[in-house]
Amino acid sequence: MTGAATTQTFRTAIVPAAGLGTRFLPATKAVPKELLPVVDTPGIELVAAEAAAAGAERLVIVTSPGKDAVVRYFEEQPELEQNLEAKGKTDLLEKVRRGSGLLAVETAIQEQALGLGHAVAQAEPNLRPDDEAVAVLLPDDLVLPTGVLERMSAVRAQYGGSVLCAFDIPKAEISPYGVFDVTGTDDEDVKRVHGMVEKPKPEDAPSTYAAAGRYLLDRAIFDALKRITPGSGGELQLTDAVALLISEGHPVHVVVHRGGRHDLGNPGGFLRAAVDFALETPEYGPSLRAWLTERIGTERP
Ligand code: G1P
């Protein structure tokens, strides 16, 4: 039996995907950044697959008006499938069906860009009565190898409350993140959280443990989200709702993920992810590696 089967603590995953994708303009004039392909697969399918593998049955995608292509991506395409089937293109057929077969996808709409906390709050009407906790996955963050949500589920089963994923990163690079004030537990990779602050200056950061885009949140977060006021950047921050719960005695822990990570939120990070994934494929890996090696040693005339 897998860890997910024994300590499953959520069935619904929320993916906030309402951003304008300004760092990817001009492409995002027409294509939502969540649909840009990492090799051939949109980033949002990678995140949906991670949620499904961790036991999620439903995915609530929070989009903004005009970004419905993100949700349409998960719909079946019968004509295309019949066409591929008739031509015996079974590999492509499997790829086309993969996204729509992962889990049930629903939409919530964020009308105004008021922050990550506000985006997550829009998914509350989609919850079922038995959703005692929800997973939140930020599609800009690829956390590798996958599996951290299963560990987070096990930690919620042990301690209750909410569990977040943290990366230990150099203090000088901490400012773009939500940062945890922590003390240790018996497990080196699990810390108790006593406070959380969004985007601190390095000298104000309470630790080097930064929030890394994976959250397992008790349903109480939705009540906390109604009680926060605009914080960092004038936005309603998920970090501030977590901090509010902590101040009220709600148990919060982090699982420190020691693996890798890609930031799909900007072209530089996206390219690294694409190259990293492509190098692992038998189809493109060997020739890409050879070309990169040659290209890196060559000055353009
Ligand atoms: C968001 C969160 C931040 C978290 C980060 C992870 O920030 O607000 O706490 O550390 O994602 O990528 P954003 O990247 O949206 O500014």
From TrEMBL:
Record keyword Transferase present: yes
GO biological process, one term: UDP-alpha-D-glucose metabolic process
Pfam families given in the database record: NTP_transferase
Protein name, as recorded: UTP--glucose-1-phosphate uridylyltransferase
Record keywords, A-Z: Nucleotidyltransferase, Transferase
Molecular-function annotations in GO: UTP:glucose-1-phosphate uridylyltransferase activity
PANTHER family recorded: UTP--GLUCOSE-1-PHOSPHATE URIDYLYLTRANSFERASE (PTHR43197)
Superkingdom of the organism of origin: Bacteria
Catalytic reaction list: alpha-D-glucose 1-phosphate + UTP + H(+) = UDP-alpha-D-glucose + diphosphate
EC number: 2.7.7.9
Species of the source: Amycolatopsis rifamycinica
Domain Nucleotidyl transferase intervals: 13-276
Enzyme kind, highest EC tier: transferase
Family: Belongs to the UDPGP type 2 family.
